[in-house]
Amino acid sequence: MKKLLLGLMVTVLGVGGSVGLGQTSASAACPYTGCTRTQVAVVDGPTAVKAGARPAYDVEVTTNGSSVPKGRIKIIVKSPAARHVGNKDYYYSRGEDTRRGTAKFTLPEMRKGTYNVTVRYIKKPGSVWKNSTTKFVLKVTKRKS
Predict the structure, then answer these.
(1) Model pTM score
(2) Model confidence over 65-95: pLDDT tens digits?
(3) Distances in Å between the alpha carbon of 12 and those of 3, 4, 6, 73?
C-alpha cells in the first residue's frame, strides 16, 4: 500500500510540474538566438556643428524587457560622395563599462560638409538579441574666422 501511495504522489507531482522547479524552460516565443528586438538610439548630441568641432554623442540600446543587451556599438561616418571618413567600435554592456547604459563617443574634427552617420548595435555572438541600426545626418558649417 505504501508503494502504491508513493507512486501515486510522484506521478501527481510530476504531472503538476512541481518536480524540477529549478530548471528553466524554453521560451516558445524565442527558442533560437537573435530573436529579441533591440533599438539603438542617439539620445544626446548635435545634428549641426561648426567646422573643426568634435561632436560628442550618447548612444543607448533598449529592449522591451528588463534584460540588458550586451554587444558592440559601431559608428560609421560617410560623406555624400561615399568617401569613408571612419568608424569605431564601442563595447556596450549596461552598468559595466558605460555610464547608466549609455555609450559615449566623440567624432574627430570635422570639415565643412554633410555627413551620414550610421550607429549600429551588434549583438554578442550566441545571444538572443537582434542587431539594430539608426542613422542621422550631421551638417558641418563653415567656421567664422
Answers:
(1) 0.67
(2) 777 777 888 888 888 665 656 666 666 655 4
(3) 14, 12, 10, 50
Burial category of 61 from C-beta neighbours within 10 Å (exposed 0-12, middle 13-18, buried 19 and up): buried
Domains and CATH numbers, the chain: 30-141 (2.60.40.730)
Whether 130 shows a pLDDT value over 50: the answer reads yes
CB 140 within 8 A of CB 112: yes
Q: How far apart, in whole angstroms, are the C-alpha atoms of residue 114 and residue 45?
A: 16
Nearest CA to 132 out of 84, 82, 64 is that of 64
**15 by DSSP, 3-state: which?**
helix
Residue 105, judged by CB atoms within 10 A of its CB (0-12, 13-18, 19+), counts as: middle
Q: Show the cell assigned to 106.
A: 566623440
Question: Which of these ranges, 80-94, 104-118, 119-133, has the smallest mean pLDDT?
Answer: 80-94
Across the chain, the runs of DSSP E, i.e. the strands, are: 38-44, 48-50, 56-63, 70-78, 84-93, 102-106, 113-123, 132-141
In 3-state terms, what secondary structure has residue 92? strand
